[in-house]
Amino acid sequence: MSRPLILVTNDDGYSSKGIEILNNVASNFGDTIIVAPNSEKSGKAHGITLYDPIGLKKIDNQNQLIYSVDGTPVDCVKIAINSLLDKKPKLILSGINHGLNVGRSILYSGTVSAASESIMIGIPSIAFSLQKSEEMDFTNVDIILEKLIKNALDEDFPNDVVWNVNIPKTVNEKINGIKLTKQGKSNFNEIYHKRKDPRNNTYFWVDGAIESIEEDLDVDEVAIRNGYVSITPLSFELTSQKYLENNQSKGFFDFEK
Amino acid sequence: MSRPLILVTNDDGYSSKGIEILNNVASNFGDTIIVAPNSEKSGKAHGITLYDPIGLKKIDNQNQLIYSVDGTPVDCVKIAINSLLDKKPKLILSGINHGLNVGRSILYSGTVSAASESIMIGIPSIAFSLQKSEEMDFTNVDIILEKLIKNALDEDFPNDVVWNVNIPKTVNEKINGIKLTKQGKSNFNEIYHKRKDPRNNTYFWVDGAIESIEEDLDVDEVAIRNGYVSITPLSFELTSQKYLENNQSKGFFDFEK
Q1: Closest chain B CA to residue A119
Q2: Cβ–Cβ below 8 Å for A56 and B192
Q3: Could you tell me the end-to-end alpha-carbon distance of chain A, in angstroms, rounded to an integer?
Q4: What would the pLDDT profile of A99-143 be if each residue is shown by its tens digit?
Q5: Spatial CB neighbours of B52, under 8 Å, sequence gap ≥ 6
Q6: Which residues of B touch A50 (CB under 8 A)?
Q7: Cβ distance B48 to A206 under 8 Å?
Q8: Pairing relation of β-strands B65-69 and A54-58?
């Protein structure tokens, strides 16, 4: 039996530690190709590059096919599928992000967006993130990844939801298990530092931290805090069915000019 | 009674025709402030600027308070709320985008993302887009905007869904009405043009067009094609409830290391 093709990407750049570990584990299950940004692209969300040329470089590496893209994580998936791969990959893996992607800040995440782009073209996908610590410690992360990637290669793995996987930093010592969770409402609480440049122009630096407002153990961020690996199934069909049902019959929408 | 504060933004830049018309109509209902990108930021999605300083300029204009931000549409909303406004606006309006934001390509849209950022902080929001034509013709668009903005200032207007409003280019002659719609599955069908620079480095330009695969009149893109203004209520709570219900009891998630 031929080995499945697995596309590996991220938003921290092709040379990050996280993508190296993800690719090492994925290589146990299939033929991998890395197509990832040339540098840190955190916060790029589902952005695409429309008005600039997108540079592509093949990285010199004897053991692994790696392409570096001067663009966003979503650009990487699109260019891989449209121009680099001979066949459709069986699975697209994104990460391992250096830092959590939980709560509302998921919307800003390039790691998750590479995965949502994948399911939009019908390819199953997982986004992996490891909780930040002073020195990112990836000990034991491979054990979690092995279990999840093996499962994702099963025929019944969904291609219409993204598995958003977040791993607590305690994984280097122990974890309490894996939890299927909901996206929480916790948000990134920004502080904008206002400064002046030498020519007296105003500019800002953004800073801040996740504001924890959740308590239920089935919420992504709370599961992590309690030492669980969190898996949130995300759908990108955005229509609010509830709003449609409650408002469909309102006269307002029958307006004729 | 004091007039409500309305924040106006977009992704085409503060000097675009679309935002001027949107702001003109909004001014009939409240005190407006424009905080918008300094240039075209289409395709920036929900991106935020994490690793660069974000420049801010007050634009010299006697009749209207305008700030220009060297950042994404979401940066504009965040900086306005965090640093520029004395009080929370009653409503945040985004657009009018020069071109539709329908189907799956909503995910790439800076116009829609400024609106989704707004509901994440609990402020009602509408994203407006006008179908592209060779010369963007905004005739009669103000009539539609007036009706929708007036409605959005009602106390019962939702602050947990975005109204994604798309207006057909036929509005300059006639429209057939307003339809409450669903987000379609039509996607942007990209073509990547591969080129070489003078130093033999590979780069790509992206090009393409919306691929229409929908037929039901209650789908955003089909409503537009049939001469209706399309209003899709969008929610950004991404958890797939369906997946949770179907998989919650699976042993897989009880894994103990």
Answers
A1: B104
A2: no
A3: 63
A4: 999 999 899 999 999 999 999 999 999 999 999 999 999 999 999
A5: none
A6: 42-43, 206
A7: yes
A8: unpaired
Residue from A180, A167, A179, A165 nearest A133 by CA: A167
Q: CA of B1 to nearest chain A CA: how many angstroms apart? A: 26
B97 bridge partner residues: B129
Query: CB under 8 Å to B182, separation ≥6 — which residues?
Result: A239, A244, B218, B219, B220, B232
Using a CB-CB cut-off of 8 Å, the residues of chain B touching A106 are: 238
Q: How far apart are CA B12 and CA B55, in angstroms?
A: 17
| pTM (two decimals) | 0.93
Residue A253 has pLDDT above 70, yes or no: no
3-state secondary structure (DSSP) of residue B256: coil
Q: A5-185+215-254: which CATH topology?
A: Stationary-phase Survival Protein Sure Homolog; Chain: A, (3.40.1210)
| Residue A240, both tokens | 């609010």
Question: Contact A135/A56 with Cβ under 8 angstroms?
Answer: no
Closest Cα partner for A48 from A129, A110, A124? A110
Strand ranges in B23-77 using DSSP code E only, listed in sequence order: 31-37, 54-58, 65-69
| pLDDT band with cut points at 50, 70 and 90 for residue A257 | very low
Q: Which of A53, A106, A187 sits opposite B238 (nearest CB)?
A: A106
| pLDDT tens digit sequence for A135-181 | 999 999 999 999 999 999 998 999 999 999 999 999 999 999 999 99
Q: Which residue of A has its CA nearest to B117?
A: A107
Single-letter code of the amino acid located at A64: Q
Bridge-based pairing state of the strands A125-130 and A162-167: parallel
In words, the CATH class of domain B5-184+215-254 is alpha beta
pLDDT tens for A46-93 read: 899 988 999 999 998 888 999 999 999 999 999 999 999 999 999 999
